């Protein structure tokens, strides 16, 4: 018995040599003792054949020694495979906006070591953008990515596991609703897309399924704010399985809601824009109707406290009259438009209403109609701060600030909400802006026969800032030669001069903007400017001392700042 066991061990050692030499040729014969993931072939040889099968070249070892050797070899192979640089995991979180798929936060997890040679991930079909925010667990892809002349993406892997965060956007191909994706294959990859409930996603290349939400498919360390992206009432989530896929197509099909079968009017797109001023709320509602819309009277249900300014149908003013609203409610009224001839294609309504500190926004909604794609945008004018926005149909989100100049000194962030079917009820909490800027300027004036030159240093400071743009009015008649920031700890500051009109570069506005939200803003500005000056003038008025004095000689003015000028 002992002799048979001894040669069983010898044959086990022989199998170990076979496994090392040609892995994969061994055939499993027993599951009694698994050896660290290896399948070990056990052969029982009769005693009279041992000398023929097991020669002196084989080494005798125990089963414990064999298991230890197999474990060391498995660990060596695992480390060798992990050192090969590759894209281990790809997670894409995006939303579908008409013919554009946009992601504010996606992630690549790269593994292995590049040893100074960047990993080539190939080219991609979408435009890579900076992430909305870079979590502490990784870095922004846009800060480390390298591009070859052919457009291939090269990424260095500084650690055995590296997380790269980014955003992206991809527009539809020549066919509306068709998106052609080309991206680097990953061992594990998934894409989560938020769409309107009226949109169906399919693909001829990959598996796409509708899911209840995005949370269960994201890792625990995923930023919670991004999970809510698009995850509101009126929208739905789709999961796309992308493991090891390089190219695939997504097809988006918009279907008509069931309520449209019983509604005489279908609104393809509705856009409502609110501007909250200190004393009133300005509303502009735009509707794009279906080409199959029927002619005839059109009615709108409006809040009773709304005062209509204008109603345009296909760009032309139309007559309208107010009917009595629902007898059970005195808060609404019906406005009927007198339409004749061809069906309407576009309707625009402008109205104003008293602003309340807290409460529902005034509404204008077309009667007996369903909206395929709706959006609401809320912005505040100077002196008003929006502290919170809620809705019964989803979660509003803040949006980027436009860089276009406006009459207001500040441009605060706006709120947006997408919806479908019926218009939601939105409540807004506002307050008066208590932030004040402190501005101090030192200007050196040089008086010449025909010109007045100014070299101005302007120091600005404010606390509790809720905006990310400041506009400084340039006095009429002044020509700005140059403007630059000379002292600021804010790396994301940008400054530019916007003339009053292209044909007259004098005057205008100096716009200072920053991207990140900051409680305290401090900066210093240097402005060089000049203006014409009559030699017959004996007095240069620098301040507005009354209606008889000329105030246009003042170079820079900040309407909502405590400003002191020194000359």
Write the layout of secondary structure elements.
Elements: H1 2-21, H2 50-53, H3 63-82, E1 86-97, E2 100-111, E3 119-122, E4 127-129, E5 139-140, H4 141-144, E6 146-147, E7 153-155, E8 161-171, E9 178-182, E10 188-196, E11 199-202, E12 208-211, H5 224-227, E13 235-241, E14 247-254, E15 265-276, E16 280-289, E17 298-303, E18 307-313, E19 316-317, E20 320-323, E21 332-337, E22 346-354, E23 358-360, E24 364-366, E25 369-380, E26 384-391, E27 397-399, E28 410-412, E29 414-421, E30 426-432, E31 437-447, E32 451-463, E33 467-474, E34 479-487, E35 494-498, E36 509-513, E37 520-532, E38 556-557, E39 561-566
Parallel strand pairs: 1-10, 5-8, 15-25, 31-39
Antiparallel strand pairs: 1-2, 2-8, 3-7, 4-8, 6-7, 9-14, 10-13, 11-14, 12-13, 15-16, 16-22, 17-21, 17-24, 18-19, 18-22, 20-21, 23-30, 25-29, 26-30, 27-29, 28-33, 31-32, 32-37, 33-36, 33-38, 34-37, 35-36
Helix pairs in contact: 1-3
């Amino acid at each position: 018995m002992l002799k048979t066991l001894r040669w069983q061990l010898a044959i086990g050692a022989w199998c170990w040599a076979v496994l090392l030499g040609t892995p994969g040729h061994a055939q499993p014969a027993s599951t009694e003792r698994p050896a660290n993931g290896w399948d070990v072939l056990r052969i029982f040889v009769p005693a009279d054949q041992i000398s023929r099968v097991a020669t002196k070249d084989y080494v005798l070892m125990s089963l414990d020694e064999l298991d230890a050797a197999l474990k060391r070899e498995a660990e060596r192979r695992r480390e060798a495979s992990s050192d090969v640089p590759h894209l281990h995991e790809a997670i894409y979180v995006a939303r579908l906006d008409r013919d554009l798929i946009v992601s504010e936060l996606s992630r690549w997890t790269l593994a292995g070591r590049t040893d100074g040679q960047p990993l080539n991930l190939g080219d991609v079909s979408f435009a890579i953008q900076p992430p909305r925010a870079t979590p502490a667990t990784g870095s922004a892809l846009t800060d480390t990515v390298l591009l070859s002349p052919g457009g291939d993406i090269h990424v260095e892997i500084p650690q055995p596991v590296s997380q790269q965060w980014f955003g992206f956007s991809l527009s539809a191909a020549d066919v509306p609703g068709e998106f052609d994706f080309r991206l680097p294959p990953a061992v594990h990859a998934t894409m989560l897309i938020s769409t309107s409930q009226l949109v169906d996603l399919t693909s001829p290349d990959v598996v796409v399924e509708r899911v209840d939400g995005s949370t269960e498919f994201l890792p625990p360390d995923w930023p919670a704010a991004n999970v809510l992206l698009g995850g509101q009432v009126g929208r739905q989530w789709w999961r796309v399985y992308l493991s090891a896929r390089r190219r695939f197509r997504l097809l988006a099909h918009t279907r008509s809601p069931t309520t449209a079968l019983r509604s005489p009017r279908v609104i393809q797109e509705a856009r409502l824009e609110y501007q909250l001023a200190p004393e009133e709320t300005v509303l502009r509602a735009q509707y794009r109707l279906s080409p199959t819309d029927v002619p005839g009277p059109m009615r709108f249900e409006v809040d009773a406290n709304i005062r209509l300014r204008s109603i345009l149908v296909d760009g032309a003013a139309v007559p309208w009259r107010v009917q009595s609203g629902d007898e059970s409610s005195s808060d609404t009224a019906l406005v009927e438009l007198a339409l004749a001839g061809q069906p309407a294609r576009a309707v625009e309504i402008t109205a104003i209403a008293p602003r309340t500190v807290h409460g529902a926004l005034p509404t204008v909604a077309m009667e007996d109609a369903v909206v395929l794609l709706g959006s609401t945008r809320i912005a505040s004018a100077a002196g008003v701060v929006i502290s919170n926005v809620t809705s019964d149909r989803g979660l509003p989100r803040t949006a980027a600030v436009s860089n276009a100049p406006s009459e207001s000194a500040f441009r605060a962030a706006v709120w947006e909400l997408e919806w479908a079917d019926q218009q939601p009820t939105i409540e807004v909490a506002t307050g008066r802006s208590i932030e004040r800027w402190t501005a101090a300027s030192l200007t050196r004036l040089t008086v010449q026969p025909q010109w007045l030159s100014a070299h101005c240093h302007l120091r600005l400071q404010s606390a509790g800032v809720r905006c990310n743009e400041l506009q400084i009015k340039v006095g009429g008649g002044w020509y700005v030669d140059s403007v630059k920031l000379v002292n600021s700890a804010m790396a994301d500051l940008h400054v530019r001069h916007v003339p009053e009109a292209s044909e007259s570069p004098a005057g205008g506005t100096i716009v200072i903007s920053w991207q990140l939200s900051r409680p305290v803003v401090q900066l210093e500005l240097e402005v060089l400017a000049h203006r014409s000056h009559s030699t017959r003038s004996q007095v240069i008025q620098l301040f507005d001392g009354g209606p008889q004095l000329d105030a246009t000689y003042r170079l820079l003015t900040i309407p909502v700042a405590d400003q002191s000028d020194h000359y």
